[in-house]
Design goal:
Blueprint lengths: L15 H23 L2 E5 L5 E5 L2 H27 L4 H4 L4 H10 L2 H10 L2 H20 L34 H9 L18 E6 L9 E10 L5 E6 L4 E5 L9 E3 L3 E7 L6 E5 L1 E4 L2 E6 L2 E4 L1 E11 L2 E11 L5 E5 L2 E6 L5 H9 L6 H8 L7 E7 L4 E4 L17 E2 L18 E3 L5 E4 L9 H4 L17 H12 L5 H8 L6 H16 L5 H14 L10 H10 L18 H11 L6 H15 L6 H4 E3 L17 E2 L13 E5 L6 E7 L2 E6 L3 E6 L17 H6 L3 E2 L4 H6 L3 E3 L4
Parallel strand pairs: 2-5, 9-19, 22-25
Antiparallel strand pairs: 1-2, 1-29, 3-4, 3-21, 4-25, 4-26, 5-6, 6-7, 7-8, 8-17, 9-16, 10-11, 11-12, 13-14, 15-16, 17-18, 18-20, 22-23, 24-25, 26-27, 27-28
Length: about 725
């Protein structure tokens, strides 16, 4: 088998023949170095295909970790970095041109390269091992055909530094506005708008010893992401690393997981970490300036070239882009240029993402939080000493509290600048509440420990927690408030509570409107009496056999979009408040015709409106493609869970695809894990489908039926247990 050469760029003024010989010798030397490094790394694949990686040093472990990730799903690794490099257009064509421009304005590879050069020696070793692991995999697998990243650079991880699925913060600026500014054209061609109202989110619970049967703290880890976005893995070294959990493809730290001492779960945060400024632009001598503290400063101009695929060729598109001291110009509003101040990548964020995985307990973890570099996450924490904790965000700039920072800010004065970062002690947080539990479901921190024990909104600045309440949050508080003597199985059972709390608000309004406004003589009465009765008698829990769940979700998707608005700015009503207002004020015309449409659509598709939810809500994994096309004629599984949008704690977001009558899941519960921190760690976990992205692998679909039923596997954390269940033990490259 011919192996792909590991080539590096050298620039010397030698004759071509000399360069060729030098490159060959250098390449042989490089391969031998990596082969020697691989012998210091052992990978044990357990009976679920989970990789347990062991290295002498942290850098060795990172090398093996990335090699194992590549074995499981190289294409997702590559695609993540193609996106962060702002080069998606080279694959997807002109349709994502302005998405690439947005990335290139916010994340500059030159800055990532500069950070790599000045990185501390320990961090540089990890970055080098990241690249070595992937490149060694590509060398050993010439049958793998990258889209175009045939060589990975050690500075790549510095483009994407916190692990979040949606790590790009742009305040409320849209890609459409960006396109309009830089092209003068407001049509939607050449970009895909970010979905801001799809409640993907995550759930995290922490239970103190007083609330558990064993007297040990328990952590529940439940990210809601795109399916197959994160694999499950363990990575260990002789330098004190021993972390288990979910890693985002292509990153070298455990993003959501645990070690022997503590565990961490991240939920998406709405803390204000990015602000937009109105700039006063002046043209003078054919040059652009912006006014700042009564002075004119030159607008910085940068040329960015993006290549897009068209008819099999790469076409260059050049942009002249503009920057002020706040950041890139991203839009034009009310005649003024709008700049964005943000922190979308930082070396400190990457450092924090790594060091927290080696925390020996609460004090260590607090030191990691003191780096104040996590821009996109809330954190739920538990440890072996019985501590539980919650932090709402982490990177929080100090701002003038007299201004509404959810609005456009005056960019012409230094009075509106950030004044450093808030200390962690000043941000919204809670340690060891007396009620013995904490929860966050992408909602306000002011209900994180229930009504009486949570932080108080009056004690914090509005920009620290603009997040509103969610129906999931209401559901979690309801369960945890009455829960006692938790075990791993009991916390999993609560985490899989399928009550759709939103319909406790919406359905009574629908029923009341029908009963008050539809007479026996009305044709609508005979059309809707049985469906209304079905919904009236419903207990609001989704399951595979529930016809009411089908009616409710199909109906709610046709109501006023205000009930689906989950992201709010300072002073706005949250989803729960909007839904309550809608239900209270909705007219019959806003409720009843929508249900009639649903009934008619179901009859047209299936011959009856009495369709159990599991008949149309399906899980299907028929290939390892990133953009998976589903097919009604091929095997799929019924799923009783629903979208977190409606209050379900387990999330399964599904939609109709082109030419399908059924809905297919694509987002929601992916990696789920419950961990108990006793003298020895005990944990159970579950993945959507399986850990491998290779459809030929035994571990592509081996957890699918378990996923359907919410049945968890025992986590193998200790080496002696892993060896008993070992399916394969090897060094990278073997």
């Amino acid at each position: 088998m011919t192996k792909r050469p590991l080539l590096y760029c050298f620039y010397f003024y030698f004759p071509f023949f000399s360069i060729q010989l030098f490159s060959q010798e250098s390449n042989i030397k490089e391969i031998k170095r990596l082969q020697k490094l691989a012998q210091q790394v052992t990978i044990i694949r357990d009976s679920w295909g989970i990789a347990h990686v062991y290295g002498k040093t942290d850098a060795d472990a990172v090398f093996g970790m990335l090699y194992a990730q590549c074995e499981d799903d190289f294409k997702r690794i590559e695609m993540n970095y193609i996106e962060k490099l702002g080069r998606l257009s080279e694959i997807k064509g002109k349709s994502v041109l302005y998405n690439d421009l947005e990335i290139r304005l916010l994340i500059d590879p030159k800055e990532a390269k500069a950070d790599y050069k000045k990185a501390a020696p320990w961090l540089k070793k990890l970055l080098n091992s990241y690249a070595d692991g992937i490149n060694f995999y590509l060398h050993n697998h010439p049958e793998v055909r990258p889209a175009f990243l045939t060589h990975f650079e050690p500075w790549f991880p510095l483009l994407w530094t916190d692990g979040s699925i949606g790590a790009i913060s742009t305040a409320d600026l849209t890609t459409g506005e960006l396109k309009t500014f830089y092209s003068g054209n407001s049509d939607k061609v050449a970009y895909v708008e970010r979905e801001t109202e799809v409640q993907t989110g995550s759930n995290g619970f922490a239970l103190a010893p007083a609330k558990t049967a064993s007297g040990n703290a328990i952590l529940y880890i439940n990210p809601h992401t795109s399916f197959y976005f994160r694999p499950e893995i363990q990575v260990s070294s002789e330098e004190g690393l021993n972390a288990y959990g979910a890693v985002t493809w292509g990153q070298f730290f455990i993003y959501q997981g645990f070690n022997e001492n503590c565990g961490w779960m991240h939920t998406s945060s709405d803390v204000d970490v990015a602000d937009i400024y109105a700039e006063k632009i002046v043209t003078k001598n054919n040059k652009l300036f912006y006014e700042y503290d009564s002075k004119l400063l030159p607008v910085i101009e940068k040329q960015i070239t993006i290549n897009y695929l068209q008819d099999g060729k790469l076409i260059p598109k050049k942009f002249k882009t503009y920057f002020t001291n706040h950041g890139p110009i991203m839009a034009k509003r009310a005649g003024k240029w709008i700049s964005l101040k943000s922190n979308n990548r930082s070396m400190n964020s990457l450092i924090q993402s790594w060091v927290r995985t080696k925390s020996k307990g609460f004090e260590d973890y607090k030191k990691a939080m003191d780096l104040k570099a996590n821009t996109s996450n809330n954190t739920i924490y538990a440890d072996s000493k019985g501590n539980i904790a919650y932090w709402h965000g982490n990177f929080v700039p100090v701002r003038d509290s007299n201004l509404n920072w959810s609005k456009v800010i005056d960019g012409s004065t230094s009075k509106t600048e950030w004044q450093g970062l808030h200390d962690v002690s000043e941000t919204v947080h809670l340690y060891n509440p007396s009620n013995g539990w904490l929860q966050n479901c992408n909602a306000t921190p002011y209900s994180v420990a229930g009504a009486n024990n949570s932080p108080k909104e009056k004690d914090y600045r509005p920009y620290m927690a603009p997040d509103g309440e969610s129906f999931r949050g209401i559901n979690a508080v309801r369960l945890l408030s009455k829960g006692e003597k938790y075990t791993l199985d009991k916390v999993i059972a609560d985490g899989y509570d399928t009550k759709l709390s939103a319909f406790e608000v919406l359905i009574p309004s629908l029923v009341s409107s029908f009963e008050k406004n539809v007479s026996l003589e009305d044709s609508l009465y005979s059309d809707l009496l049985e469906p209304i009765t079905t919904l009236k008698n419903w207990d609001y829990y989704s399951n595979e056999n529930s016809v009411a769940t089908t009616l409710a979700i199909e109906w709610a998707s046709k109501l006023d979009p205000i009930i689906r608005k989950t992201h709010i700015n300072e002073g706005e009503l949250d989803q729960v408040e909007n839904t309550q207002n809608f239900a209270r004020k909705a007219s019959p015309e806003e409720l009843l015709p929508q249900l009639q449409i649903v009934v008619n659509e179901l009859k047209t598709k299936f011959g009856t409106w009495q369709i159990p939810w599991g008949d149309i809500n399906r899980f299907q994994r028929i290939s390892g493609e990133i953009d998976l096309a589903c097919n009604d004629t091929l095997e799929s599984l019924p799923i009783g869970y629903a979208s977190a949008l409606w209050g379900s704690l387990p999330s399964f977001v599904s939609t109709y695809q082109k030419d399908t009558k059924k809905r297919y899941g694509y987002n929601g519960n992916s990696f789920v894990c419950a961990v108990e921190f006793g003298p020895k760690v005990k944990a159970k976990s579950l993945l959507a489908g399986g850990n491998s992205g290779d459809s030929k692998s035994n571990h592509f679909y081996d957890q699918a039926e378990m996923y359907r039923k919410g049945q968890f596997k025992d986590v193998l954390f200790y080496k002696e247990d892993i060896q008993k269940e070992a399916e394969r033990t090897y060094h990278p490259g073997e």
